[in-house]
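Let's practice the habit of predicting before peeking. Look at the sequence and jot down your guess about where helices and strands might fall. Then scroll down.
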Amino acid sequence: MQTHILGFPSIGSHRELKFALEDFWAGKTTLSELESTAETLKQESFRIQSDAGLSYVTAGDFSLYDRMLDTMLMLGLVPRRYTCYGMTKIETYFAMARGDALRNLAALPMKKWFNTNYHYIVPEPDITFRQEPDFSKLNKDVSLALEHGYTTKAVIIGPATFLALSNPVWIKNRWELMGELAEIYAAAIRQLPAECKFIQIDEPILCTELEKEAWLSFIPTHRKIKDTAQDKKLMLTTYFGDPLLNMTPIYESGYDVIHLDMTCLKHDMKDYLSELPSHMSVSAGVVDGRNIWKTDTGRAKSTLDMLEKRLGGNRVMCASSCSLLHCPVDIRNENGLEGKLKNRMAFAVQKCCETASLPSHMAGTPDTSRLHTTRKTEITSDRSPYSIRRKIQEETLCLPPLPTTTIGSFPQTQHIRGLRSRFKSGEISGETYESGIKKEIYDNIQRQIKLGLDVLVHGEPERNDMAEYFGENLEGFCFLENGWVQSYGSRCVKPPVIYGDVKRNSPITLKWIKYAASLTDKPVKGILTGPVTIAKWSFMREDIPQEAVWEQIALALRAEALELEQAGIQIIQIDEPAFVEAMPLDKNMQEQYFDDAVRCFKLVTSALNDSTQVHTHMCYSEFERIMPHIKRLDADVISIEAGRSGMGVLDSFRRSGYESDIGAGLYDIHSSRIPTATELSGRIDRILKYIPAEQVWINPDCGLKTRGWGETLSALQNMVTAAVLMRGRLNKKDEKAIG
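Done guessing? Here is the structure:
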């Protein structure tokens, strides 16, 4: 039985790519040095896969920033505005990813990659503008693997997934482009080295409900690609969900192999195999590529045995469920974990070994350690309807029109990171650490007062990460030293691990928020990460019902929110950026998911007084399809990403009749480009075309922890200036109306 994985992390076991990128962007190193680091990491990935004993090493999945961005360049679909300045290829690449301050170019939008915490760059195919396709990166990566003697499998994001996740311009029906893409994909395959006999075409969009036009164009497009392959074997790859609704186009694609994510299938295998063409094999994704626990070898081997009996050994492959991009790299780098826990974990390197050895592995024994405590707490609420709460909060807070605030975090400087590190290592005392954090909070408050912001934050200097910080202060979590996972570009996160019942024994944020509030007469927001996001951005035990974990976290946060309120904090923000991300791809499961997610959010907020204003924050979400559930959250204010997506997202709120206040993110915090006050005034003007002024808040689109202080202060000052300018215009309109 042949074995393979769908992809390997690009970042390196010690985040080598992150540091190489950031040094290159800072002008400390050259492009050749960056490329040298990239080549070393690719070779290391090939070596790891080969040493594990996999039948194929996967090439083409490595990316300097993002694979969707790479695919744009491969297809020659770079938006026109990035081609007008005579930039080099690498300058164009990073301008699309991060913006270009010197040329006043904004970055392309980002969204979440299906139901993961990975962010991809959203392509903008333009039917009126084309460049020559560029297959050099794919060919170079495949050739590198072949040169070192590896049996190589090339991987490409498929045309249907690329188009479905794109934002085409000047075209009504995106699927009209499939025919043209078929020709480009066919050319890409023809130009691959002859020695590369196996090609993986990733089409995870098949695990969603496809539009009719997508169905009609899918089969001829993929048949064209398959016809071009000649003696090469093609694999159609689905993952993150159940493709049962789309098995017909899969069967009729003519491909040699279909990959199924066995961790997500909801139906009996006979439903997938009953009409499987006799020429088609099955790649069984039995090793979970999104979690860190060792594979239940008994269950995995049972699946492989069943497939072998039905199809024969030569028609079954053993694989990871999806790319191992979503896992940390190597468990051997974890020296601080308790032995029993560490022995139950497998990271990307270990999952390669699991995948290679499973076909000959003896049946294993499932983990039988204690399960989570499961309960369902009823929501008890004394909060009045929003219309009543709004009036009470207006009288309590006395905020101006278009109130200004930030999402929560401020720049995490080297000094702050060093302070936390020295405290954790025991180099400094608790008193010294607390004094240092308070100094940072004091400075943050003074900066915000000087800027003229209306609602302040403490800046979160004590927090390493949205999920990890809360996990460190709750029972039931453990933590990794080097368990880094790529979120986007050079941004990496280190998810905590949930292994037991979650409990709160003492206040988490209270001390810091109370101190910040004591420094000003202006309102200070208490910032909490929501239950779904904490759980989703952690590695969870697979034998724990996710809704049980959410509830336990929600009850802990409820106690925290009540203590903040009792301490006089009038605004409490519960961040749920994973609210959409955690949604199952299967439509039949979505309603139950949202019922559980909304209930757990309201478990946190329902006991608060009407005078306490509840905020929530979400980013990089497709709000159109979830507006009814956002309304059910019953938050007083929601802040969203809107700057990077051009404010168009606000139309969903307008058409849904959303009544609560909205903080439409005014500018993209992931770009170093600083928008002018005039530009931001124009954006506010555009917001007011969608949302009444009395519902609008002014804020950046996300937290500011990744930015430097210089650009942060300049952008915020321009934002406040724009808000004040627009207030003046609103006052003149009011005076005219009265006159």
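How did you do? The longest strand covers residues 281-287.
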